[in-house]
C-alpha cells in the first residue's frame, strides 16, 4: 500500500479535495482490511485447489487477520496523534449555531403545547427543564 500511495501521491494531492501527508498516512495504515485480497485468494483456491490454493488462502487470510488485530485498534491513536480528530473553528461554530437553533425550536414547541393543550396544565415545569436539557437554556 505504501508504495502505491507514494507512487500516486502527486496525483492524489491535486485531484478532488486533495490529499495531504496526514491523509496518505491514514490510507497506508488503514487499508481495506483484506476483503479484496481474501476474495482473490478464494478465486485462486477455487481455480488451482490443492496445496497451492490452500497455502495461498492461508497466507492472505493471515495477513487480513493481522490488519484487523494490529492496524484497526491503532487507527484511533494514529488519528489523534496526527491531529485529525479535532474539529475546526468552522465546525465548532456550526455545531453551536445548530445547538442554539434546536434549543430555541424546542422551547418554542414546549411553550406552544403547554399553553394550548389542557393536558399539560398540571405539568411540573422545573422537572421538565431538568429532563430536557434544551429547555435549561431558557
Number of strands: 0
Shape: elongated
The low-confidence parts are: none
Number of DSSP helical runs: 6
> How much helical structure, as a percent, in the residues?
over 70%
Main beta sheet: none
Element pattern in H and E: HHHHHH
Which band does the percent of strand residues land in? Answer: under 5%
Average pLDDT works out at 87
**SS class:** mainly alpha
The rounded Rg comes to 27 Å
**How far is it from the N-terminal to the C-terminal residue, by CA?**
54 Å
Characterization of the model:
This protein has helices at 2-14, 21-30, 35-48, 50-82, 89-116, 125-131. The protein is mostly helical and 138 residues long. Helix 3 runs antiparallel to helix 4. It is elongated, with a radius of gyration of 27 Å. The mean pLDDT is 87.
Write the layout of secondary structure elements.
Layout: H1 2-14, H2 21-30, H3 35-48, H4 50-82, H5 89-116, H6 125-131
Task: Please give a quick description of this structure.
Helix content is 76%, strand content 0%. It has helices at residues 2-14, 21-30, 35-48, 50-82, 89-116, 125-131.
Considering the chains and any ligands shown, give keywords for the structure.
138 residues; mainly alpha; 6 helices; 76% helix
